[in-house]
Amino acid sequence: MLAAAELNAHGGICGRQVELCAADAGGSPEAVVERTRALVEAQQVDALIGVHLSNVRVALRDEFAGRLPYVFAPLYEGGENAPGVFAIGETPQRQFPDVVRWLMESHGVMRWLFVGNDYIWPRATHAAVRKFVEEEGGEVAGESYVGLGSGNVAQTVAQIKRLRPQVVFDSFVGSDSVQFNRAFARAGLAEHCLRLSGAVEENTLLGIGARNTRNLYCVGGYFNALRTQENREFLGRYQDAFGATAPVQSSLSQSCYEGLKFFAALADSAGDLEIDSLRSAFEGLRFHGARGLAVVRRGEVQSPLYLARASGVHFKVIHQF
User: Fold this and answer.
1) DSSP letters for 97-115
2) Beta bridge partners of 143
3) For the whole model, what pTM was predicted?
4) Sign of torsion over alpha carbons 73, 252, 269, 275
5) Backbone region of residue 108 per phi and psi (left: phi > 0; alpha: psi in -120 to 50; beta: other values)
6) SS3 at position 306
7) How far apart are CA 34 and CA 60, in angstroms?
8) H or E element in which residue 60 lies
9) Per-residue pLDDT for the chain (321 aa), expressed as one digit of tens each?
10) Which structural domains are found in the chain, ordered by start?
């Protein structure tokens, strides 16, 4: 809503005012496609902006690629190149190699274990991070996956206790992340084992709870705690619009804002909403979001990455890559 209001105050997109329509992206990918198809047909939607899981992205891509411009805004596993699909979030190849090296050098941790939900993003991310760990001389003691939404993390925690890694790389999302991290801390593992995630955002951290976040790190392109001028201005506009008690901003909500700002810049550069025109305008595009200036280079959005350490239910940014 904030992004649309800001764009409309300056002429909209390609001279047209932005109108928002919302589809629930929860549940099965097939159900999301059905909801989205109905919305597209009923509301004559011109473009899709997605903030959801990668298995949903694949289903929406298969349905709409080449028919409608589709911006997938959050972090993802990489490799998306379908016509008219613009994935602008962090990929494992950008997000994790520097932080893996930093943790191993600064904390002397060599033995890793990977845990997460059982779908495309965690599995592809783990394959990439395994490569980074092994290139730095570390070892991966094992992997464990849990079905989305099951909350069945007891066996995963038992495996961690048995294998005794120095770092757990955590790719759980949403409520499963909350359940895992609570169980991890209750088992007494947080005192001597680091946790690293690319997906624990501020609202998930609140769910995990202050007693359960010791030695929890997250790396990403945005944190509410960023002290940059761009983020201070963004949060100021957000609070002016929705009040001081509005929900905390996170990487996911920021990526929703950024997705719309990106699409506006792309469409204005292309001059129209035709997929071929948009694809031609993608490489080299420069646009502004809550994180500041971002530039598309070699098919990926380039902007700073940050490492944050949990302190209770807040993040403290401790390093920039």
Assistant:
1) HHHHHHHHHHH---EEEEE
2) 114
3) 0.94
4) positive
5) left
6) strand
7) 10
8) helix 54-64
9) 999 999 999 999 999 999 999 999 999 999 999 999 999 999 999 999 999 999 999 999 999 999 999 999 999 999 999 999 999 999 999 999 999 999 999 999 999 999 999 999 999 999 999 999 999 999 999 999 999 999 899 999 999 999 999 999 999 999 999 999 999 999 999 999 999 999 999 999 999 999 999 999 999 999 999 999 999 999 999 999 999 999 999 999 999 999 999 999 999 999 999 999 999 999 999 999 999 899 999 999 999 999 999 999 999 999 999
10) 2-90+227-302 (3.40.50.2300), 93-220 (3.40.50.2300)
- Residue 35, amino acid: R
Instruction: Round to whole Å and give the CA distance between 174 and 7.
Output: 30
Radius of gyration of the chain (CA): 20
59 by DSSP, 3-state: which? helix
Residue type, 107: H
What pLDDT digit, counting tens, does each position of 152-162 carry? Answer: 999 999 999 99
Query: Which runs of E-coded beta strand occur in the chain?
Result: 48-50, 70-72, 85-87, 111-117, 139-146, 167-171, 194-197, 216-220, 286-289, 292-297, 300-302, 306-311, 314-320
Give the CA angle between residues 124, 312, 235 to the nearest 5°.
80
CA distance 90 to 94: 6
